[in-house]
Structures are given as structure tokens and as C-alpha cells.
Design goal:
Length: about 550
């Protein structure tokens, strides 16, 4: 286990007033729930994007926010952050680590801790952290997993109750629907006008309040007291770093979904930055057509755009719930990187090696796997279908809602028939499969992927990190049909590794390009690359 979980002394996120070691911070009284404190917050979203709404364009094919900015505009947005970080990163100065970090055996056994894992997202986001929680519980720690109420039974049953469940609020279905409508870092005009942004802000407030309750409330069943010594969270949680400041806990910010740590190796997965220096004779370093520079700057811009959308609700949470001072734009942007919070990326270094400019507080551990197949017995009709012909292709989009399920089902069936393939089609939250099974297509219910993917020839899905990991670990070529967020990033990584075709955005999918993707996935080259990658991943132990 490579995460740094030793409790740390209290610190401040406000870099202008960092306390000296051992000093105490004044703290006002804590209010446990401020979700409905301000009617204005519930009805109105405070977005300070300004002219960025006019300069930004969401590119449907790359699924990235495209920005064309000059040096003055970039420095106006993230100048202070760049002054803090860019020079050492871009010039390559400072600490250098190996391509991938490996855990080291410590002669000192860590003390028994109360560890809180906070996960916001879909079932696929939650599942890997159940595996991590079970490993921590085996090591003697008390582990609580705070996530959405919908996953309560899943957490308890999958962990054999070794991991406690705590409801932090929020509806993952509504969250996924919002992300499908607003796949970029800036919400669309339709969502701003319809009130969807305000609804999402209210849900964020509920989740933020839930993250604090998860740290200090007793177990809901046993009433055994709980106080978190260490916090592990995925990026969409947002509140964990602020709760850690208030409680003096060590916060280990883990990132399964995609890279959020600045690097010159590749750009932020959600930002396509073009630095405009046309018509200038004297071009500064930041404007030189150097991908290393623009790669690093893209992370500062992503942090800044994220903070613009969160700053009011985060600062209200800090003031009213945690009794902390509000953060300025400079303090709130890039705080995780500036404080060098331990950051574990839960993917295989065989797929994405650790960049050379990531420092020792950043680790690439390998995927977290939770085996749910041990006690699974397939229904008779599924077993019969699998035995009746060659291994089929799996097609499903998990927790992602689809705008037109009927049309999507028609595209899938048409492509499968055109490719002369067999397929297992999973309805999921997309509601696919409004038809009957046939000789070459079987409509799936809820089947564990770690069992199912052993019996298929290839997989086609939305590109969620967890589903991608299970498919690759089983050596299966992968077709990614991304809807939002990190999904296109994972599709590109799979394609770069040779284990599948280029990703096809969901709104660009048709019978012909899906048929071509199926044929490419089943080619000898893709099968061989996926098999090699699977062997490498199987040799790793992320937890």
C-alpha cells in the first residue's frame, strides 16, 4: 500500500497565512448542515466565466474544451499560478522520479487509523475503492466509504461488511445526466438557462456537507463513534481537502479517473489549448509553439475553470460549515499541487507511465480490482448463448444515460449484423435493448464484468476508468464510445496502446463507424496488443 496515511498536523490552504509547525489556528464553531442556508445559492448559480463563455468552444469529436488564447489572456487567468510552478516544470528542473513508483516495505508498522474514503460518481467509480478499503481493513484499519445512498447495499455486500457505508448525499443518476448534457469544464447555455446548473449546485452543497458528516458522525447502524484520521477521495469529491484542513487530518487525494497533476508530458484531458502568437515579432517563452509549455499550462487553466464554477459554494462551505476563512482565486486554484498532497493514480504504468516531472508525492500504483465473480452463476439462457457460438462482443454504457435509447439500440444492432458478429448488449442506465434477444444478440441484465469479460472477444463501452481496466486486464480489445469527462482520454490511451480503435464520440456514432470499429477490434493486431497488455496488468497489484 503506497498511499501516505500517517496523520499530519493541521495546515491552512491559504498560502498567505500558513501557520508555523506546531502552531494552532483559531477556528470558529462548526455548523453541521448548511445545505439550505441560502435561498440565493439554491436558486442562482454564481458563474464568473465572463468572456470565456465566448472564447471557449466544446469540440464534440475530441470531447475537449477548445481555447484559443494569447499570452496576456493566459497570464490574466492563471498568471500567479504559473509564476509559482511553470518555470521548474517546463525547464525540467527540480526533483525527478522513475517512470513508475513502486511501494516500499516500511520497517515501522503504521498505527491503526480511522480511514475515510470519499467517492462521488457512478458504481464504476465506487467499485475499485471497495477493493482498496478491504485491503486497508485487512491491514487493521477501520475503514468507512462515504458515497451515494444508491450504493449502500453494494458497498456492504461486496466488502462482506468489512467496509462501513456512509451516505454523503447526491444522486448519481442526476449527476451522470448533468455530465452528459455538460461534458466540458464550462456548462452550456441551455443548462444555464434551464436551471440545471442551479440544481447541480444544490446537489454539490449537499455532497460537501455530507463529506464533513462522514468524517465525524458515528456509524449509522452501530452508533460506534468515528473520527477520521485520514481521508482518501476521488477528484469530483471537492470537499475533502477543506475538511482535512478543518480537522487536521491527512488528505490523500487519489485520482483514478484521469491526470490532474501538471506535467509537460501530455495536456489535461479536458483542455485543448492553442496559444495564439500570430502577428508578433517578439514572442515570449509562454507563446512559443512548444507542446511542453502548452501541456503544462493546460492544467493551470483546468484548475482555474473548475474553481470559477465552485468558488462560491466552496467558500460558503468553508465559512458556514467548517469555520474556515474563504480562499482567494490564487489560494483556491492548484492548492492540491502547491501543498504536495499525496496523489495516487490508480492505473497501470503499462498503459500510462509516470511522467518524469511528477514528484515523489505522486504515485502510479496499478489498477484497483474487486473480484465479484467468485460466487456468480450465470442464468441458463446466458450460458446457453455463450456456448452456442464463438465468443461475442460486449456492448454497454453502464451508468451513463443515453438521450435516445431506441436509436442507440438500432445503431448497435445494425453494426453487429453488418460486422457479422455476435453480441451481448447490456441495458444499464442507458435503457438499451428495447427489443428481443436473437440468434446473434443477447440482452443482458446485471452481470459482474469481471466474470463476463472472460467470456467475450472484445468490449465496447463508454470508457469509464473501471470498465476500461477490467476489459484490459482480461486482455480484451476495447472500443470506447465516450460521452463526457475522462472517457475520451481512456479511449485515446487504449488506441495508443494498440488495443482498440480510435474512440467514437457517442453523438457521432453510426452503424458504419461502429461496424468498422468492431472489425478493427477483432483484428489480429488488436487482439495481440490487448493480450500483452492484459498479461502486464495481471502481474500488478494496485492495492
Amino acid at each position: 500500500m503506497s498511499n501516505n496515511l500517517v496523520p499530519a498536523p493541521p495546515y491552512s490552504l491559504i498560502d498567505e497565512t500558513l501557520p508555523e509547525a506546531g502552531s494552532s489556528r483559531p477556528r470558529s464553531s462548526i455548523v453541521l448542515d448548511d445545505v439550505n442556508d441560502s435561498k440565493e445559492d439554491d436558486e442562482e448559480a454564481d458563474f464568473a466565466y465572463g468572456d470565456l463563455l465566448l472564447k471557449a468552444h466544446f469540440e464534440k469529436w475530441t470531447r475537449k474544451l477548445k481555447l484559443d488564447l494569447n499570452e496576456q489572456e493566459i497570464r490574466g487567468l492563471v498568471g500567479e499560478h504559473l509564476e509559482d510552478e511553470t518555470e521548474s516544470q517546463v525547464t525540467g528542473e527540480g526533483e525527478r522520479d522513475s517512470m513508475a513508483s513502486t511501494p516500499t516495505d516500511s520497517p515501522i508498522k503504521p498505527p491503526r487509523l480511522n480511514i475515510l474514503i470519499l467517492i462521488v460518481g457512478s458504481r464504476g467509480d465506487v467499485q475499485p475503492y471497495i477493493a482498496l478499503g478491504m485491503k486497508l481493513a485487512e491491514d487493521g484499519h477501520r475503514v468507512r466509504l462515504g458515497t451515494h445512498k444508491e450504493f449502500r447495499d453494494f458497498v456492504r455486500e461486496a466488502s462482506g461488511r468489512k467496509v462501513e457505508f456512509f451516505d454523503i448525499g447526491g444522486d448519481p443518476r442526476e449527476l451522470m445526466a448533468y455530465m452528459v448534457k455538460n461534458p466540458g469544464l464550462i456548462p452550456g447555455w441551455k443548462s444555464l438557462k434551464s436551471g440545471d446548473v442551479g440544481k447541480n449546485t444544490k446537489m454539490l452543497k449537499e455532497i460537501l456537507s455530507g463529506t464533513f458528516r462522514a468524517c465525524v458522525f458515528p456509524d449509522l447502524d452501530t452508533q460506534i463513534p468515528f473520527s477520521a484520521n485520514a481521508i482518501i477521495a476521488n477528484p469530483p469529491c471537492f470537499g475533502h481537502i477543506h475538511v482535512a484542513e478543518a480537522l487536521g487530518s491527512d488528505s490523500c487525494f487519489t485520482g483514478l479517473a484521469m491526470p490532474w497533476s501538471p506535467t509537460t508530458a501530455f495536456p489535461h484531458p479536458l483542455v485543448d489549448l492553442h496559444i495564439n502568437s500570430k502577428g508578433k515579432s517578439n514572442v515570449s517563452d509562454i507563446e512559443k509553439p512548444d507542446s511542453h509549455t502548452s501541456n503544462y499550462v493546460s492544467y493551470a487553466l483546468a484548475d482555474h475553470l473548475t474553481w470559477l464554477g465552485l468558488q462560491r459554494v466552496i467558500n460558503n462551505f468553508r465559512k458556514k460549515t467548517l469555520g474556515l476563512l474563504p480562499l482567494s482565486a490564487h489560494s483556491g486554484t492548484g492548492v492540491v499541487h502547491r501543498l504536495k498532497i499525496p496523489y495516487t493514480y490508480c492505473w497501470s504504468p503499462a498503459l500510462i507511465p509516470k511522467p518524469k516531472d511528477w514528484k515523489s508525492n505522486i504515485d502510479v500504483s496499478g489498477f484497483y480490482f474487486l473480484d465479484l465473480s467468485t460466487n456468480y452463476t450465470p442464468p441458463v439462457d446466458l450460458a446457453r448463448f455463450l456456448e452456442s457460438g464463438p465468443p461475442p462482443i460486449y456492448i454497454g454504457f453502464g451508468s451513463v444515460p443515453v438521450k435516445d435509447p431506441k436509436k442507440m439500440t438500432e445503431i448497435i444492432l445494425g453494426a453487429v449484423n453488418k460486422a457479422g458478429a455476435r453480441a451481448l448488449v447490456s441495458a444499464g442506465w442507458a435503457g438499451l435493448g428495447a427489443t428481443k434477444s436473437s440468434d446473434n444478440v443477447f440482452l443482458l441484465g446485471n452481470v459482474p464484468h469481471d466474470w463476463l469479460f472472460k467470456h467475450v472477444s472484445a468490449v465496447c463501452h463508454h470508457g469509464g476508468a473501471g470498465t476500461t481496466a477490467i476489459g484490459l486486464a482480461n486482455g480484451r480489445p476495447t472500443i470506447v464510445v465516450p460521452f463526457f469527462g475522462d472517457q475520451v482520454f481512456w479511449g485515446n490511451m487504449v488506441h495508443r496502446a494498440g488495443a482498440g480503435p480510435e474512440p467514437i464520440p457517442a453523438d457521432k456514432l453510426d452503424v458504419y463507424n461502429l461496424c468498422a470499429a468492431i472489425k478493427e477490434a477483432l483484428s489480429e493486431e488488436s487482439l495481440d496488443a490487448a493480450h500483452r497488455l492484459g498479461e502486464w496488468i495481471q502481474s500488478e497489484d494496485g492495492v
